[in-house]
Amino acid sequence: MYESHFGLTDKPFKLSPDPKYFFSSAHHDRAVAYLQYGLSQGEGFIVVTGPIGTGKTTIARSLLASLDDSIVPAQIATTKLNPEELVQLVAAEFNISVEGLGKAEILRKLEQYLHQLNRQGKRALLVVDEAQNLLAETVEELRMLSNFQLDDRPLIQSFLLGQEELKPIIELPEMEQFRQRIIASCHLRPFSGDEVQGYIEHRLTQAGWEGVPALSSDIFGRITDYTGGVPRKINIFADRLFLYAFLEDLTSISAEDVEAVITEMGEELSGSLQTARSAAASVIAGNQTAEQPQGDDLAVNISGDEMQKVLSDVGHVLDQVIQRKIKIIRYLDKLITHKKAESEKGVRSLS
């Protein structure tokens, strides 16, 4: 919505992982360094963990985009797969036909494929995203895949990316052999206040931002507090903040604007209308438990203060709905004006 208005060439805060927008914080740089180290070694497991939305998948996409032709990658995002299902999925990601085949036959075909890559001077890399969903026996199956070797060199290498729940799985006593093959691991943390500023400005710059709207230096601390420094939450909030700036015709974004968006989003997500309904329901329920009054007696038993509060809550929600409708109408009016100007410009260029 706001991209063309602010002269941007792309959507800067989209949620889908894109290597173009990868931001190198200290922790993310370390994770990338570990992954690159693992690639240089050509063996062992690299494990990267972190809370939801901290950029694990973006790191993986960035790594895959940087690979040369000597490495043939496959990336899977796992659910709770059993070992046989994992083998089927891995083979399918390497474009090996598995329909109607049992596990043993699939493993045989996978080994043949890996030897074929080796003869071509290539090797396979498996990136397992959302690895916290794997069962312990399925993680062990990954270790077994690393037993495909030639001249004591693995034919396939695996990187595991997952949320914090992955660590207890790996720490299980029966996972000792797997742990011995981990050559590096790291844990991603949310951004600090300075990193949040760098992250937002980096993404904007990648999308062609030239300083409009200007960003006040005092907004980033509040954004950090509200989002917890988690990249995905920052994207959601910053996207909404720029939409607000567009609808309000802002040329700069201040701390007051950030607070306005926080309030607006909080009211949408906190269920203000539901609060009003709950208040009304509790008042009614309280009166019904007395003597089950009939008809107009119910209204008499509701105190004036209670009814006033319910009406006030409902009125507040309706005011917010009206304000959003006004903003939508304002946006549509701008969009129509913009399209009309583009159409007239096109007609003039043809004449």
From TrEMBL:
Please give the SMART domains that the UniProt record associates with this protein.
AAA
Q: Ranges for the AAA+ ATPase domain?
A: 42-230
Q: Name one Pfam family in it.
A: AAA_22
Q: Which NCBIfam families match?
A: pepcterm_ATPase
Descriptive protein name:
XrtA-associated ATPase
Q: What organism does the record attribute this protein to?
A: Neiella holothuriorum
